[in-house]
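Notebook entry, structure prediction.
Reason for the run: the old model in the group folder had no record of what sequence produced it. Starting over properly, with the input documented here first.
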Amino acid sequence: MIIVKSGSWTEQTFRENVSDFDQIRLRQRVAVDMTNRTTKSQMIGQDVAMPVALAPVGMTGMQHADGEILAAKAAEKFGVPFTLSTMSICSIEDVAEHTTKPFWFQLYTMTDEDYVRRLVERARAAKCSALVITLDLQILGQRHKDLKNGLSAPPKLTPKVIADLATRWRWGLGMLQTKRRGFRNIVGHVKGISDPSSLMAWTAENFDPSLDWNKIAKLKELWGGKVILKGILDAEDAKMALKVGADAIIVSNHGGRQLDGALSSIRVLPEILDAVGDQIEVHIDSGIRSGQDVLKAVAMGAKGTYIGRAFIYGLGAMGEAGVTRALEVIHREMDVSMALCGKRDIADVDRDILLVPEDFGGRWQRGARSGN
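New structure, fully documented this time:
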């Protein structure tokens, strides 16, 4: 669970993703008809039971055996989108084989362009209904806890890891019974990958530091379907996403695992909405832990939200049933809170239900330019 509980560097952004949601209050209303409520909505034209998607989480299949398959099945049954990470343990084909409806695929751009092209083709063949391109991982952020604990898939069997696994026998039995323990979107699809060390080395060296808007436009053209751009944290970048023709953007700081010291997603959401909100669908992730957080984000103007850690905890504890339970809890919290704010339809929720600190966006001043 270290990957779930940690951020980069000092973890300031990781913490503020959550604490900034806490600053926003809900406005209670009474004597309002609360019958016949609905949380049904749409995300990029797809009907959803609530404006929530399961975010792409790398190594989900290490939290629980066949984790991506189980999470995708739970999402499908509940009626929300599931997003498969490039760095998943279960492959695109694994998930497609065990689900009946299209899921979304998240793409990390790599320097190996042939691999990226084949990966996109595999996602298209699996009938994925959206490509989610992550923009903020051109260079891997410094994640001290991951380095300290030697994060890898499968785990390196050091004495410390063996001792830890001995206390998690149920997890160990599950992992022994599955054939899916490595990065199956990569292994078998890249030459020279034969063991965990070569895999991790290849991955670390192949994130594409030269990714720019021209390459993003080419990826959109290659895909030919709906594209969501993940990792937008600045209004100017949101405008660029609009120019390349994205169908939606995700206001995201990678869950606080990339640039530490960046603002929280919920804090920058209003500025981005002011810049592009009526021209492109704006979603948000990072810091959403509850149904109230979802409600606050939607009230601020987001058309969709993504949960990562919230469903991973459920998956680790109870497998598919745990993901379902996490979704049920979030839905219940959102529905009840919406009602107590005097709203019956999530489509009618807006900033009128919120009490937002006057200086919530912050009076930030960009660094002055040097010169005469």
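Summary: The chain has a mean pLDDT of 90.
The old model has been moved to the deprecated folder.
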